[in-house]
Amino acid sequence: MSLDIDEKRKEVKNGKEYIKPTNVNIKRHDQVNKKKTATEKNDVDMKRHDQVNKKETATAKNDVDMKRHDQENKKETATAKNDVDMKRHDQVNKKETATEKKEVVKKSQGEVENGENANETEIDETMAAHTGDAFIAGWVGGAASVLVSHPLDTVKVRLQTNTAYKGAMDCAIKTFTKEGVRGFYKGMSFPLASAAAYNALVFGIYSNTTKLLCYVRYGDSGEVPRCSDIFIAAMAAG
What we know:
The protein has helices spanning about 1-10, 25-160, 170-180, 190-220, 225-235; strands spanning about 10-15, 15-20.
């Protein structure tokens, strides 16, 4: 029976034998087409799914990259801010240090000036205190020199003006015998006053000039004067 059916299906067309399509073959063909269509559809869906996944992956990757970029930007911003803060802090510290340094310099200058003023005041007071001593010493020295030398001067003058004396000893003895000690000091008031005043000026000017020269040249009025200082002071006193 099956052989008859197969024989009926077969036909010859243009010298070639082919099998007529039957309902069964059409169904099979439709099923195959459906399977192919389903497969192709599945392939398309898979491709679409893959594309969607790729897009989602790319989107997620972009999001991650954006987050990383934002984090890096935040870090850079924070670093830049820290750098700015550090620079400001350094500038403030420099200003404070400069201000403190200026204050220290001012204080030191003030202390130096105060010290110099104090030293100058002390020196001025010391020099002022000892200025009159030299004049007093010169006056006393001049008066003493007159008291010692005037009796000898009296004997000398009498020997020069009177030939009755045999010598200086004879003149001194006769003067003491006749006039006593007062005879040797006759006419002493004027030499005493003049010699005392002269020596007071010489001593005072010389002493204070040497002190002034030592203070100006060496910074200490108590310094030992050099020969040049003594020469200048002697010229001033003379």
